[in-house]
Amino acid sequence: MNIQKLCVLGLGYIGLPTASTFAANGVNVVGVDINPQIIETLRSGGLHIHEPGLRAVVETALKSGNLTLATRPEPADAFIIAVPTPFYENKFGEYDGQKYKLADMRAVTSATEAIVPVLQKGNLVVLESTSPPRTTIELVAPILARSGLQAGRDFYLAYSPERVLPGQILRELIENARVIGGVTPESAQAGADLYSIFVKGEIVQTDATTAEMVKLMENTYRDVNIAIANEFSRLADKFGVDVWEAISLANRHPRVKILSPGPGVGGHCISVDPWFFVETAPELTPLIYHSRRVNDSQPHYVLELIERAVGNLKGKKIAALGLAYKPNVDDLRESPAAEVVHLLQNEGALVKAWEPFKPDANLPGIRMASSLDNALQDADAIVLLVKHTEFVNVRPSEIASKTKARVVVDAVNGWKASDWRAAGFQVARLGVRK
Ligand code: SAJ
To answer: N or C, which end of the chain has less CB nearby within 10 Å?
Structure first.
């Protein structure tokens, strides 16, 4: 299929890099977002999201004229839907007495509806948004049929998941292998034609539901793996073992790759996607359900660890190092570190948080420090919640000179306990009772 003009619906973390990369490769792209503020920000040279290198790519795309911006789709050869699929905040499903979260598919529904009036014979429509299995054939195809055209017969329809890692989106977009699932083999081929414009990784064709399931399996596998690591951290603590040492020894086995325990699983992918399986098949997903529960409860476990090290938390001044959902990013969404801070405060602790990647973070109820030194001042204890490289590199003797705190709690295996002990600190570590 020959694609001259493309509409990308949704200009967020995935849509904007995708639209700009197509534009950089000579495609005439219309970037569509229903939020006029986003369009305005982009037109005036701003950027509403943070991703290394993105500003330059967007700027070049806009200047070249290959990327234009609009609030609704225009007739084109192909359409990519890259809108968010969050959960409902206050709506839950229930199975066997257990509550589960429900996907809010309203953005996918309205983006698809917006394509109906401009859809033409021979077009290609690709859904990229992470979605419950069968969304392409059971939600998207019927909406598009309102145009009088039928998916697979009159136009091509495919599902192709994004798999890029925040912080490395622009590189991974091009280099990662890409799965493309068509409602027919011809639809998968049309999708492959589209992405081969810039994708250097392998492009693998399959059917739409398989592609949807593959995406959810990848993130669910990671979530379950982290859940077992978190459970191992609790067991190691009980048995007087160092979980980090034990995992590294177990991982010497050629067929074992256990991930790392920590304060929990954050971000908007791994902590979200497994629920799409649970929602669509609660009776088949007890393992996935309980893994989510284990990871969601890990901040409480870290709270217990801190309480054990510090004693009664009421009135204690705690320096919390890190609020991001993972190391070396500025993204605080669904962050387990922020959850730990809230739990500490519920126990009456006076927490000051320092997040070098977002010093002016404005999270409700969290008091931010203005610098690392400011966080350490007057602290009774220091808690390491995110393994940012700059935290790993601090020198315990230097920290000792900046604070009266002599207790550190390391929830991420960022610090060498013996160095801190040598500098006069009492050390507690997640997954270690020694
Ligand atoms: N985490 C652990 N232990 C680990 C690894 C991660 O506790 O051993 C925690 C992190 O600290 C973080 C959370 O898990 O809180 C998720 O971080 P992550 O780096 O595992 O993943 P994300 O959410 O940033 O991106 C994932 C990626 N998926 C996989 O690696 C299978 C990415 O490729 C996907 O594109 C992205 O989800 C997405 O958009 O779905």
So the answer is: C
Domain residues for 262?
Answer: 217-434
Q: Spell out the SS3 assignment of the chain.
A: CCCCEEEEECCCCCHHHHHHHHHHCCCEEEEECCCHHHHHHHHCCCCCCCCCCHHHHHHHHHHHCCEEEECCCCCCCEEEECCCCCEEEEEEEEECCEEEEEECCHHHHHHHHHHHHHCCCCCEEEECCCCCCCHHHHHHHHHHHHHCCCECCCEEEEECCCCCCCCCHHHHHHHCCEEEEECCHHHHHHHHHHHCCCCCCCEEEEEHHHHHHHHHHHHHHHHHHHHHHHHHHHHHHHHCCEHHHHHHHHCCCCCCCCCCCCCCCCCCCCCCCHHHHHHHCHHHCHHHHHHHHHHHHHHHHHHHHHHHHHCCCCCCEEEEECCCCCCCCCCCCCCHHHHHHHHHHHCCCEEEEECCCCCCCCCCCCCECCCHHHHHCCCCEEEECCCCHHHHCCCHHHHHCCCCCCEEEECCCCCCHHHHHHCCCEEEECCECC
Ligand 1 pocket check for 227: Cβ under 6 Å = no
Q: Are residues 39 and 186 in the same domain?
A: yes
- Cβ 73 under 6 angstroms from ligand 1: no
Atom of ligand 1 nearest to the CA of 167: 24
Number of domains present in the structure of the chain: 2
Q: Does the CB atom of residue 172 touch ligand 1 within 6 A?
A: no
Same domain, 251 and 395: yes
> What pLDDT is stored for residue 257 in this prediction?
98
Please tell me the distance between residue 410's alpha carbon and the centre of ligand 1 in angstroms. Answer: 20
Answer yes or no: do 185 and 71 share one domain.
yes
What is the best residue among 270, 295, 302 to mutate for testing ligand 1's pocket, by most ligand atoms within 8 Å of CB? 270
pLDDT tens-digit map of 224-279: 999 999 999 999 999 999 999 999 999 999 999 999 999 999 998 999 999 999 99
Residue 215: active-site member: yes
Question: Mind listing the pLDDT tens digit for each residue in 334-366?
Answer: 999 999 999 999 999 999 999 999 999 999 999
Same domain, 188 and 283: no
Final residue belonging to a domain, choices 208, 227, 261: 208
Q: Is the pTM of this model over 0.85?
A: yes
